[in-house]
Amino acid sequence: MKIIVSKVSGFCSGVRRTLKLVWDALERCSGRVYVDGETVHNRLVMQALEDANVKLFRDSDQRCIVPNDCIVTRAHGIPESRYSQLKGCFKNVTDGTCSHVAGVLQLIKHVSGEARDVVIVGNSEHPEVITLVDAARGGKCFVINSAEQVKSLPHDLTRVLLIAQSTIDGELFADVAKAIGEKYSDAEVKNTICGSSRVRQRAILDLAREGVEAIIVVGGKHSSNTTVLVKVARRTGLPVFHIEVAAELPLNELEKFCSIGVATGASTSEEMVREVVDSLREKCVGKRIPNA
Ligand code: SF4
Asked: Is residue 225 lining ligand 1, measured as CB closer than 6 Å?
């Protein structure tokens, strides 16, 4: 069996930076270190933080916060009201927002300051989208997740800006952009899918082009970018297996393939990828041609 790891694997730069901020806080903060919500959507990463004594901040914790406690916000961004609330509780708040998301927030604030309306393609319940909607207070803001939903948007929107949640499917965004362009002649389309998500989506297609017979996607089951990668992988028509950890590998099923591609979400560490590759090598490759 040949194992081909996607050209882009391991944490994205935004996740790496936010996690470093948390680990740095553990070193320099003399009090307790908190995170506000899941820093990243990966339960193993969150477990590692918990094991290092990082605490998930809950509103009920407010009464117990002392001056030398610290908090780091998540990579997905945080609404201004929430940031102010944290500032009211903690003397030391570190903004963990990924620089890409921060850039999109600036764009939305600028546009909605001109009372223009914003349409976001994404999941309305995702923390990043909640933060983007919060920033679009100057005009109307709509969140949709299909080209079909463009039909239900009001006709009288003002100079629409169309943007994307950073991790959505590029094909979905292109379909929505086409429908928006047909409905609003003065719409501005900005593809704000981040670089990391774009190259990961492309790298999955490269795996298929290289002739793999099946694709394993490693990443959190509730991670937005990982589930998009699974969707992109399924479009290739190949068998796709979405796992969070090496222990979930369906080794009996995988044995029948001569070559397997391994791709990872943005919140999956290199170490987790190595574990998956090592398990495949140990259980399957020995029986065929070692070529990973
Ligand atoms: S997936 Fe993209 S937007 Fe999200 S943290 Fe990573 S680099 Fe930033």
From this structure: yes
Going from the Cα of 289 to the center of ligand 1, the distance in angstroms, rounded, reads: 36
Residue with the nearest Cα to atom 2 of ligand 1?
194
Q: Is CATH 3.30.9.10 what the domain over 2-10+195-287 is classified as, yes or no? A: no
Region of 205 (left: φ > 0; alpha: ψ -120 to 50; beta: rest) is alpha
User: What's the rounded Cα separation, in Å, for the pair 26 and 46?
Assistant: 14
99-189 CATH fold: Cobalt-precorrin-4 Transmethylase; domain 1 (3.40.1010)
Residue 128 known to be catalytic: yes
Question: How many angstroms does the Cα of residue 229 sit away from the middle of ligand 1?
Answer: 14
Contacts of 83 (CB under 8 A, 6+ apart): 73, 93, 95
| Ligand 1 center to 165 CA (angstroms) | 10
Where in the sequence of the chain do the CATH 3.40.50.11270 domains occur? 13-94
Best CATH choice for the domain 13-94 from the list 3.40.50.300, 2.60.40.10, 3.40.50.11270, 3.40.640.10: 3.40.50.11270
Provide the residue-wise pLDDT of the chain in tens; the chain has 292 residues. 899 999 888 899 999 999 999 999 999 999 999 999 888 888 889 999 999 999 999 988 888 899 999 999 999 999 999 999 999 999 999 999 999 999 999 999 999 888 899 999 999 999 999 999 999 988 899 999 999 999 999 999 989 999 999 999 999 999 999 999 999 999 999 999 999 999 999 999 999 999 999 999 999 888 899 999 999 999 999 999 999 999 999 988 998 999 999 999 998 999 999 999 999 988 776 554 444 4
**Nearest C-alpha neighbor of 95 from the set 52, 51, 131, 134:** 131
Ligand 1 atom with minimal separation from the 11 CA: 6
